[in-house]
Specification:
Length: about 300
């Protein structure tokens, strides 16, 4: 038996093939299958390319069950959405499509749990007392994304410009912004950011520089990290109000995995609201494999 779990994030897609014992057979990483940001045709082609890689390396082209976790979805896909994406792409007995949060929750292998994602974007999800998935956040970079890499980067960029321009307090972020943009003077920043205009994912990469400055003790950077961690903690606390008491909190995304200060601030803010909090031990793609096996068994 072969089960395929897919974690379709905003920037990349991870495919994990396992046997009936959930032992890994093969994995590959490819381009995004978010059909809203990439377009349906491109998303389907990206998926086909990854399936081709799997076949070429393992000889496996047919699966007993497939679970696709997609950043394009808030919940379980309806039959039309599933057909639009999957028809002519997969050879499988059973297929489900759900949100990337669904597969992250599955990866915790716990019932009373919540997952908080802090990557380029942010949101939280958990199981309520009836076992239904509930969410908070996830409204995107215009309407929300508190505690995300994008929000931290944008705050950092603006404080850096203010520092360079003498209209704000001095911060290491000024020099780091010049380095990030590949320019020597503040006057060159306009062209660097607007000609052509940097997209959201490119801007979010500056969050790494904010984290570096915070680690070096820069007060402005520390304040940004702390403030965004606090905002994200409020998102989680709003979710926990609808959950059974003291859930386990699984943390996922680049900020939690690579920015120790952000993770520590966040855990401190939520410690009285949960039983435990730790970085998600198993990847969401593995949660998708678990879900694939479950639908095959049922």
């Amino acid at each position: 038996m072969y089960f395929l779990g897919i974690d379709g994030g905003g920037t990349k897609t991870t495919c994990l093939v396992c046997d009936e014992g959930l032992n890994e057979i093969f994995r590959t990483v490819g381009s995004s299958i978010n059909f809203y940001s990439e377009g349906l045709s491109t998303a389907r082609e990206n998926m086909k390319e990854m399936l081709s890689v799997i076949k070429n390396n393992t000889g496996i082209s047919r699966f007993d069950a497939v679970c696709i976790g997609s950043s394009a979805l808030f919940g379980r896909a309806d039959e039309k959405t599933k057909a639009d994406f999957c028809e002519g792409v997969f050879d499988a007995d059973k297929i489900i499509m759900d949100s990337d949060l669904f597969i992250a929750l599955k990866a915790t292998e716990k019932k009373n749990c919540a997952v908080v994602i802090a990557g380029t974007g942010s949101m939280a999800a958990g199981f309520n007392a009836d076992g239904e998935i509930i969410t908070r956040g996830g409204y995107g970079y215009i309407l929300g994304d508190e505690g995300s890499g994008y929000r931290i980067a944008l705050d950092g960029i603006r404080e850096a410009v203010r520092s360079l321009d003498g209209t704000g307090e001095y911060t290491l972020l000024g020099e780091k912004l010049l380095s990030f943009a590949g320019v020597k003077t503040k006057e060159e920043l306009v062209d660097a950011f607007y000609s052509p205009e940097k997209d959201r994912k490119s801007l979010a990469a500056f969050s790494v520089f904010v984290a570096e400055a915070a680690k070096e003790g820069d007060k402005t950077a520390l304040d940004i990290i702390r403030f965004q961690a606090k905002l994200l903690s409020k998102t989680l606390k709003a979710l926990i109000e609808e959950m059974p008491p003291l859930p386990h909190i699984a943390l996922f995304g680049g900020l939690f995995q690579h920015c120790t200060l952000f993770r520590e601030f966040f855990i401190e803010f939520i410690k009285e609201s949960c039983s435990s909090a730790a970085v998600l031990a198993k990847e969401p793609a593995f949660g998708a494999v678990i879900a694939a096996r479950e639908i095959y068994d049922n």
